[in-house]
Amino acid sequence: MPQAVSKPDKKDPRTRPEKDLESAIGREVRAHRHQQDMTVADLSRKTGLSMGMLSKIENGNISPSLTTLQSLATALNVPITTFFKRYERRRKAVHVRPSDAAEITRTGAPDSYRYNLLGDLGPSHTGVSVEPYLITLTDNADIHTGFQHDGVELIYVLEGEIRYRHGDDTYDLQPGDSFFFDADAPHGPEELIRVPVRVLSVISTPKAS
Questions:
Q1: Where is the composition biased (Basic and acidic residues) (predicted)?
Q2: Reduced to 3 states, what is the DSSP secondary structure of residue 196?
Q3: Which of 160, 159, 182, 156 is CA-nearest to residue 169?
Q4: CATH assignment of 21-84, given 1.10.260.40, 2.60.120.430, 3.40.50.1820, 1.10.150.120?
Q5: Domain 98-206 has what CATH class?
Q6: Is the pTM of this model over 0.70?
Q7: How far is CA 117 from CA 31, 40, 46, 106, 127, in A?
Q8: What digits encode the pLDDT tens for the residues 153-172?
Q9: Cβ neighbours of residue 138 under 8 Å, at least 6 residues apart?
């Protein structure tokens, strides 16, 4: 299975996430002060904070209180959340080459359906689980319209032509077509019109609590 890697922009320190909250806040305060052509003395007069205190904040040497942050936000005319923009957890990314896409078996899918998992970020803090697959169907693939699961699904046809059933309706899908649907309704390929069929499938389901 490919390993998740993070690739921050090392060339531009202005866009690089900060390692600690104090530095992140300090950079934002200084950046917005400069954008408004405001000196430390100007900001001191507007907020009632001493120049020494402001210097410590901008250099990340102290952790300002919420009251202080609100005063700074008012003086700089920005939302208080602006000061936390640079403080972000490390984000994961996965690069999967064609030869590395793991072939898996999905529960309930016929053996003739070939699934290649295109990436896995592991546990997510977003509250949803996202699974991207490349699905390949050849002329010996079984017809199966009984897929049913939580969440939503997007399929995008890369090759071939397929008649796809969702609930009581069918849709003829060709290369370039996309189909986005509630996956709780029975669904699946009803007819393989032109094979091989290759579709990109992205399934999003609520993360189990």
A1: 7-22
A2: strand
A3: 182
A4: 1.10.260.40
A5: mainly beta
A6: no
A7: 42, 53, 55, 10, 20
A8: 999 999 999 999 999 999 99
A9: 112, 195, 196, 197
